[in-house]
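User: Please fill in residues for this 418-position structure.
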C-alpha cells in the first residue's frame, strides 16, 4: 500500500533577500498572508547597487518585516568574486563581464548566514521564473543550507505585472515610490550596470540614449585621450598610476575615469540558462579597463601553451559563474589552476582611453617573456637563423608525407580511369 506523503509544514520564519524595491517590498506582506502570519527577516546586501539603501531598513519594517539586516559587502564582492573572475579571464559569450552573475552568490551567501543566525526555516527571493537569478540564488541555497525550504513567489503568486504589484502594495499599505511608467529593468553594482526591456526588446533597435546611465556617449567624450596605468601582482589588480589602492577604491576610481570617456558599453543578445535569448545593455567601465590590461599583461608573461589552455578553461569558468555554480568543486579546482598561471603576471599596463575605446599602448613586467635580442632581425648569440631550415623540415614532415600520399593516390586513380 502506497503511503501518501504529507505536505511540508508551513514555514514559521522566512529570510528574504530584500532590495527595498517594489517586488521584494510586496513579498513581505505576501509571505505573512500566505503562511499564516509567519515572521519575515529581511536581508539587504550592499554590493554597490545604485539604489539608496540608507532607508531600506525602515522600509522593510514598514512593509511588515520583523527585522532587517543591512550588510556592506562591496569590498568582499570585488576582492573575492570580481577579481578572481577577472584573473580567470572569464567572459560570457564574448562580451559579458558577468557583473550580475558574480553578485548573486554574494547576496545569497549573506542571506543564508543571517537565516541560520536567526533560526529561520525557509529562504525567499524575488527572482522571476524566466530569469537566471532564480538559479543563482537557489544553487547557493542548496550548497550552503540545503535543509532550508525555498520560496519563490514569482513562480506561484497572482502578481503578473508591475501594475499588479503597485496595486497590491497600495492595498497592503506597503511604502513604495514605484510608478507604472518604468521603462527599463535595471540591475547594478560596483562592477557594472545592466539595462533590459523597453525598446531593447527589439534587437533591430539601436539602444536609445537613455538606456545608458553610467557612461557618457562615446561621441560626447573628450576629444583628447587619457592615459592610465594599472599595476598587477600575480594577476591581482593593485595600483592605479603607481598608487596602491584597495580593490573597491581601485574599481571605483577606474569606473569614473573610464565612464568619462564612454568606455565599457556592450549590447548583447545572450543565451539565458533557462533556454531563451535576451537582450541586455551593459556598462562595465572600470571592469573593461581591468580586463583589457590583465589580458595584455598575460600576453607578455604567459607562455603559449599555458595561455591557450587558460583561454579554453576561461569559457568553462564563465559558464560556471553565469549559471550560478560559484560554490562548486569545479570552480574551486579551476581557481587552483588560475593561481598557478598567475604567478608571473606581475607588472604594469598603460591604457589609452578615447571615444569609447580602451587600448593597451604599453606593458612591462619583471617576468616578461619578450626578449628584444630574440625578436630582433639582427644577429644574436641565442637564435641562429640557419637552424630554422632544419626546424621547418621537421615541423612540416607530416604535411609533406600526407602530400606525397595524395599525389600517389591521384596517380593511381588516373591510371585506373585510363
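Assistant: Residues filled in for all 418 positions:
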Amino acid at each position: 500500500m502506497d503511503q501518501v506523503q504529507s505536505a511540508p509544514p508551513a514555514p514559521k520564519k522566512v529570510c528574504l533577500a530584500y532590495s527595498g524595491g517594489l517586488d521584494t517590498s510586496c513579498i513581505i506582506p505576501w509571505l505573512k498572508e500566505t503562511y499564516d502570519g509567519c515572521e519575515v527577516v529581511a536581508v539587504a546586501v550592499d554590493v554597490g547597487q545604485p539604489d539608496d539603501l540608507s532607508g531600506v531598513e525602515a522600509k522593510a519594517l514598514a512593509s511588515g518585516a520583523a527585522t532587517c539586516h543591512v550588510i556592506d559587502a562591496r569590498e568582499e564582492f570585488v576582492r573575492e568574486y570580481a577579481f578572481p573572475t577577472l584573473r580567470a579571464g572569464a567572459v560570457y559569450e564574448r562580451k559579458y563581464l558577468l557583473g550580475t552573475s558574480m553578485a548573486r552568490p554574494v547576496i545569497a551567501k549573506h542571506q543564508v548566514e543571517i537565516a541560520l543566525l536567526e533560526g529561520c526555516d525557509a529562504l525567499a527571493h524575488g527572482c522571476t521564473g524566466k530569469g537566471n537569478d532564480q538559479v543563482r540564488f537557489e544553487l547557493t541555497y542548496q550548497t550552503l543550507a540545503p535543509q532550508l525550504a525555498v520560496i519563490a513567489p514569482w513562480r506561484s503568486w497572482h502578481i503578473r505585472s508591475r501594475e499588479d504589484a503597485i496595486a497590491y502594495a497600495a492595498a497592503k499599505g506597503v511604502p513604495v515610490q514605484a510608478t507604472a511608467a518604468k521603462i527599463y529593468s535595471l540591475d547594478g553594482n560596483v562592477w557594472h550596470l545592466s539595462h533590459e526591456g523597453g525598446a531593447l526588446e527589439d534587437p533591430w533597435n539601436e539602444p536609445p540614449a537613455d538606456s545608458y546611465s553610467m557612461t557618457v556617449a562615446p561621441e560626447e567624450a573628450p576629444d583628447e585621450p587619457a592615459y592610465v596605468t594599472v599595476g598587477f601582482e600575480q594577476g591581482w589588480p593593485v595600483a592605479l598610476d603607481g598608487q596602491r589602492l584597495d580593490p573597491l577604491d581601485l574599481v571605483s576610481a577606474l569606473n569614473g575615469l573610464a565612464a568619462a570617456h564612454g568606455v565599457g558599453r556592450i549590447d548583447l543578445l545572450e543565451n539565458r540558462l533557462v533556454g531563451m535569448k535576451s537582450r541586455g545593455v551593459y556598462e562595465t567601465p572600470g571592469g573593461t579597463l581591468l580586463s583589457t590590461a590583465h589580458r595584455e599583461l598575460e600576453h607578455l608573461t604567459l607562455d603559449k601553451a599555458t595561455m591557450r589552455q587558460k583561454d579554453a578553461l576561461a569559457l568553462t569558468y564563465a559558464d560556471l559563474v553565469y549559471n550560478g555554480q560559484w560554490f562548486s568543486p569545479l570552480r574551486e579546482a579551476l581557481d587552483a589552476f588560475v593561481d598557478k598561471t598567475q604567478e608571473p603576471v606581475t607588472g604594469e599596463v598603460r591604457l589609452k582611453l578615447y571615444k569609447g575605446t580602451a587600448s593597451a599602448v604599453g606593458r612591462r613586467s619583471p617576468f616578461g617573456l619578450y626578449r628584444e635580442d630574440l625578436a630582433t632581425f639582427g644577429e644574436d648569440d641565442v637564435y641562429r637563423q640557419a637552424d630554422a631550415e632544419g626546424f621547418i623540415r621537421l615541423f612540416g614532415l607530416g604535411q609533406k608525407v600526407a602530400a606525397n600520399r595524395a599525389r600517389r593516390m591521384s596517380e593511381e586513380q588516373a591510371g585506373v580511369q585510363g
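For context: The two ends are 81 Å apart (CA to CA).
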